[in-house]
Structures are given as C-alpha cells and as structure tokens.
Amino acid sequence: MGQEFMEGEQGGLAALAWLADQEATHRHLARKLAIHFVADSPPPAAVDALFAVLRDTRGDLGAVARRLVALDAAWKPPLSKLRAPVDYMMAVLRALEAPAQITAGLINTSQFLGQPIWNARAPNGWPDQMADWAAPEAILRRVEWAFGQAGRGAGRDAATLAEAVMGPLIQPETLRAASRAGSAREALTLVLTSPEFQRR
User: Fold this and answer.
1) How many other CB atoms are found less than 10 A from the CB of residue 34?
2) pLDDT score of 102 more than 90
3) Which residues are CB-contacts of 179 (< 8 A; sequence separation ≥ 6)?
C-alpha cells in the first residue's frame, strides 16, 4: 500500500496507527458495531452514520459510542439481536433476582449453554449473529436451564414478571401461553424462554 515502516516495536506501532486511520478500517469497525448493537443485518444508514463519526474523528471510540446510543435503529422494536448465552444467563438471573451465592455455578452454566467463560474462539472471539447461537440443541439447553432457574421464582406471577422485565415488548401470545401453563414454574419458563425475552 505504498507504506514503509521501520523494524522493531516503534515500526509496529506506527503500522498499527496507520492502519487504524484508514477508511476501510473505519468502515469495518462501523459494520461490526452495528451488527453487535443494532441487528445481524444492520440498516446501511446505521453503518454509514457510525462510519462517518469514525472517519471524521480519526477513530474516536468514545464519539462513535455516543452516536451509536443516539441511533434510532438501535432502539426500534422489534428487537432482533438474539442474546448470546452469557447475556441470556444474566438476563434470566436478573429477572428472577437471583441471590449472589448463585454465581458459584455460573462457570458450569456458561459451558452448558455453549459460551464457556474465558474460552472464546480464536482468533475472532465469540460469534455475534443469531445463526451461530440458535441451533435447536442450543435453544433446548436454554429451555432446560431456564426451567431449573424458574424453580427459584416459586410463587412469582409470570405476567407480573414479564411486565417488569419486558414492559410493552411482551407479546400477547406469550402471556396467553403462560396463563395456560400447568404450574407457576412452567409459566415462568415460558416467559423466560419467549422469543422477545431472548432478544435485546
């Protein structure tokens, strides 16, 4: 690309700084951010908006984070990003107000759900799209684990919990299914494994 850099650490740092300042790098980062925070197939306008900030600020991550939060596409339902296993696990535990002591078993849980802690795939890390997390066995494991956790929420009303954690995003079909469940535990499981709960 017509560039020469000296040997050694300083040359390596100069090469990285040059690469970080390229429009192709800014475009790549903009798309990765939009995929993670907006949608698996983000609207081109969202990618363009993030790219413009990175280009104009020469890669200021703080500036692009502020722009990302302000994007309409990042907030508009329907929610399309499937929670990764660890995100899903945390969402369930927060919804059920799980006690702090439960953290002792979470390393095994993350392994069971397919995203073992501190063991991301090299060199790219964990995948960031639904197709990578939504295999039938993976979803079945979520249901199995959520059923076990729902036992901790004994006595809780599933509709009340759904309203508290999802508000207007909860679908009538989910509430109907929960109201017809054979037990309070099954009702909570239906809410915690509903499509809208599994997305962000």
Assistant:
1) 26
2) no
3) 158, 159, 187
DSSP string, 26-63: HHHHHHHHHHHHT-SS--HHHHHHHHHHHHHHTS-HHH
Mean pLDDT of the region 33-59: 94
The CA distance from 169 to 75, in Å, is 12
pTM equals 0.80
- Contact between 101 and 72 under an 8 Å Cβ cutoff? The reply is no
Which pairs from 105-111 meet CB under 8 Å and 24+ separation?
A: 109/145, 110/85, 110/86
What pLDDT does residue 139 have?
A: 94
Helix 136-150 to helix 184-192 angle (10° resolution) is 140
Cis peptide before 78 (omega within 30 of 0): yes
How many helices and strands in the chain, by DSSP H and E? 11, 0
Q: Kindly calculate the radius of gyration of the chain based on its CA atoms and give it in whole angstroms.
A: 21
